[in-house]
Amino acid sequence: MLAMQRASASAKQARLAALGPDKPEKDDLLLAFGKNLSSLRGATRLSQDKLARRCFLRHDHIAHFERGAATPNLIMLLMLAHTLGASVADLTEGLAAPSRTASKGRTLALVASQPGISTLALADDLALPAWYVRELIRCLEATGEVARQPPGWRRAGGVLGDAEAADAVG
Q1: At a CB cut-off of 8 Å and minimum separation 6, what does 129 contact?
Q2: What is the pTM of this model?
Q3: 149: which strand partners?
Q4: Smallest Cα–Cα separation from 71: which of 59, 60, 61, 79?
Q5: Which CATH superfamily hosts domain 2-91?
Q6: How far is C-alpha 108 from the geometric centre of its chain's CA atoms?
Q7: Is the peptide bond before 151 cis (omega within 30 degrees of 0)?
């Protein structure tokens, strides 16, 4: 059992480390959520243990959320809000969606310097997992910052004119 927990913790650490330069942004977001949760829990005078039991969670889940060491899933978030007599908006007050600015900047620089670069080559060059780079590319494509250039990607407007780039993305 202990070996499984250690393996799970190691896998989680590897996933978080895989976020590369975007990890500090995620850490800040989780810490802010944890402070909101702790504040709302304090206002209801519930211990971590009581809140956990009322949400059908283990005590350490609440401690991890409040320290910013874990992210609740949607069901947990809804249970926490309900149990605290709060809304999800109360739990997430002051939080903004992550921008991934660090990885986006590095990705755009590579795409500009290597038109046609593949997603896998980007992942290798950035030392990030391919799934994470695919998410970044989808975001950049949706905002018109990159466009497909078989076999890979190029900066939108960099090779083609703006109108042609918009057609390539849309």
Answers
A1: 18, 123
A2: 0.61
A3: 152
A4: 61
A5: lambda repressor-like DNA-binding domains (1.10.260.40)
A6: 19
A7: yes
